[in-house]
Prior knowledge:
The chain has helices at 2-7, 10-42, 47-63, 65-75, 78-92, 104-136, 138-166, 172-182, 184-200, 221-236, 240-250, 259-264, 270-295, 298-307, 310-316, 320-348, 354-382, 384-411, 416-419. The protein is mainly α. It has a single domain, classed as Up-down Bundle (Growth Hormone, Chain: A), CATH 1.20.1250.
Amino acid sequence: xxxxxxxxxPAMLFILLFSVVSLLSDMxxxxxxxxxxxxxxxxxxxxxxxxxxxxxxxxxxxxxRFLFGKLADKSKRYWLLTILGYAVDVLxxxxxxxxxxxxxxxxAGLIVVERMGKAxxxxxxxxxxxxxxxxxxxxxSFALEEMLDQIGAFLGPVLLYVVMxxxxxGTTFQIYSFCFAILLIPALATLGMLLFTKRKFPHPxxxxxEPTAYVPFRLNRKFLLYLGGIxxxxxxxxxxxxxxxxxxxxxxxxxxxxxxxxxxxxxxxLPLLYAGAMLVDAAAAMVFGLLYDKKGxxxxxxxxxxxxxxxxxxxGFQSVGALLAGVAMWGVGMGAQESILKAAVAGIVxxxxxxxxxxxxxxxxxxxxxxxxxLLGALYxxxxxxxxxxxxxxxxxxxPLYFFSAREEKRNAVPPAANE
Length: 420
């Protein structure tokens, strides 16, 4: 094992260490995500409040990334912002255990704080990764990070599932509080691995050669087409919270007509359904990330076409087979987009202003994700067929924009160093 590690390039070792940080971090907050909605309900929050808090937290978490991206580029303190953001992000999760039995306001505040931590760290973290990715291939590098990230997203819910199986004494509130307290372990491990990585690689910007001349960040045609594509994708991609709500309403009630679903899908297996989606996400990230290094942004067209119909399968049929296929397609969409979208920004935006580019990208992505979630959630209560049409249509509409962005990429193709 040690011999294999010695054979890795410094850039790849950095990518692996940072990917382990992502794995531990996702164990923390994705484990929490699998029970957070139920926990808020136990604390006294209404369904409308839970939806607002979730949406507002995402909006805050994404919109502030533009400001912290600008700050990261201006100060060049990438490590400081990354460590600060991670500390706020992962420590806010186990702090949910401190909420009292009616402390939904305190818990809601911590959820927003967690998303603020993500806003602080994300542009700086992705920029640090992009420096090493320039040596190893952006698609492969971000795919590896996403794969380990989603393995953590699988392990987190499974960990809490096991904890809930073993801890049978106490009320549901006490068991959930204990689950959040347990998440302090991966949270502290995240910070420990992050500090170890910084100590080993204090200057990852040295992985990527400095540009011969300063190139400021510009919203060029290629980037604008790309933003348009990811905005439509984000708008149409249904958040998993809506999926799990639909599954809990439709599939977990026992009836003679749904005897198949009663045996396979119930309230106890819902975390495992999410964990399965995360495994598909991890595999898709690796496959499409490797394809991106060979085919460029055109791979986005393929991954979007494969995943876009998931809403039809999940919401259009009352069949376990259709549900599992739809959730798997949802995982394909998440994995492919998460790895490729980060890699594409690394190839479009110059090194000196890359954190700003990530901030713009993630701010736009988050705003359209919030608007889409809001509209699709409203449509769910009024017309599920209309919701399916909007979801699938918006995602498919992103494909022509990816095509034109890829054509710009091919037309203006130059070696990475020259592009800087």
